[in-house]
Write a structure and sequence with these properties.
single chain; 298 residues; alpha/beta; 3-stranded antiparallel β-sheet; 8 helices; 27% helix; 16% strand; binds 2'-O-acetyl adenosine-5-diphosphoribose
Length: 298
């Protein structure tokens, strides 16, 4: 059985040997964990009594749009209260330093953007919490929206005893009011449908333009030198399949994850690396030969 390398020195040597580096970072929720946002699987993977992933479907929205909006409004609020961590800044800096670097991120939390990751080097595979769109694809309305709460009905409840405290509605013990569809954000264009979060749900296709950008990058004859698999369980396709696709184009694989058992699909191959620990610490360290010390704005 192949075991991956774990030493930073051999990784740095490889990175420094690349003349025109072609590098992918495939990112997941673990990248934002040290910023204070929960991941999907494992502890924190529940919202009230619901598996977080079970609320991320068109069927869940049809059944109870109010509940799904409460979940996403809560996530928008949480994402706005935390800050990008050194790994987000390191990836943004790598993008400025290396034209052949692309960050394929499954994260919808807006932290890459808030770390000033150059837009052309960032493919948001699952969309973003801060875009909303009409439920009807025929209407096609979409807008960027950072308003928190997006409508008054989605304001977090206030504690009866302490008006300055907001109870944590992810806790099933905190009562949650039922929100009728008329009180949810409404489409200003067709005026007939509710707006929905502009994220990709289970059962939906990834945005066409993003898929094309990814395919164009992967199919470039220059190949791929390295794929960094950062804070993702790499279980959700097509994102998970990009590891094998990068390998087929010559890439070495480096996994950065808290859990050393989160092995990429297909297992380890000769020349891979596994760096176990917090992405916010490890990613800046690994990229140091190219980006130097990461500066996190205060
Ligand atoms: P997961 O929750 O599946 O995986 C998070 C990964 O991050 C796990 O492998 C953890 O071990 C690891 N991890 C946790 N904390 C970490 C830290 N501080 N540093 C490094 N690694 C850490 O989240 P994703 O892989 O992002 O899709 O999930 C992929 C997709 O499934 C999501 O985009 C979402 C979800 O359902 C949709 O909503 C469509």
């Amino acid at each position: 059985m192949t075991t991956p390398r774990t030493d930073t020195a051999s990784f740095h040597a490889y990175l420094s040997s690349l003349q025109y580096p072609r590098i992918i970072a495939l990112c997941g929720a673990g990248l934002s964990a040290s910023s204070g946002l929960p991941t999907f699987r494992g502890p924190g993977g529940y919202w009230r009594t619901h598996e977080a992933t079970s609320l991320a479907t068109p069927g869940a929205f049809l059944r109870d749009a109010g509940l799904v909006w409460q979940f996403y409004s809560y996530r928008r609020h949480m994402a706005l209260t935390v800050k990008p961590n050194p790994a987000h800044y390191a990836l943004a800096e790598l993008s400025r330093k290396i034209p052949g670097f692309q960050c394929f991120s499954q994260n919808v939390d807006g932290l890459h953007q808030r770390a000033d990751h150059p837009r052309e080097g960032l493919q948001l595979l699952h969309g973003t919490l801060f875009e909303v769109k009409c439920w009807s694809e025929n209407c096609g309305y979409r807008e960027e929206n950072f308003t928190d709460p997006i409508v008054p009905a989605l304001a977090l409840p206030v504690d009866g005893k302490d008006p300055t405290a907001t109870p944590d509605i992810s806790d099933p013990k905190v009562p949650l009011s039922r929100i009728p569809i008329e009180s949810l954000p409404q489409c200003p264009r067709c005026k007939r449908n509710a707006l929905r979060p502009g994220v990709v749900w289970f059962g939906e296709k990834l945005p066409m333009q993003i898929l094309m950008n990814v395919e164009n990058y992967l199919n470039d004859l220059a190949g791929v030198d390295l794929i960094l698999v950062i804070g993702t369980s790499a279980k959700v396709y097509p994102a998970a399949g990009y590891v094998q696709e990068a390998r087929q184009r010559g890439a070495k694989v480096a996994v950065i994850n808290m859990d050393a058992n989160d092995v990429p699909a297909g297992g380890w191959e000769d020349g891979d690396w596994m760096f176990k620990g917090d992405a916010a610490v490890i990613v800046p360290e690994l990229l140091k030969p190219v980006i130097g010390d990461v500066i996190v704005p205060q």
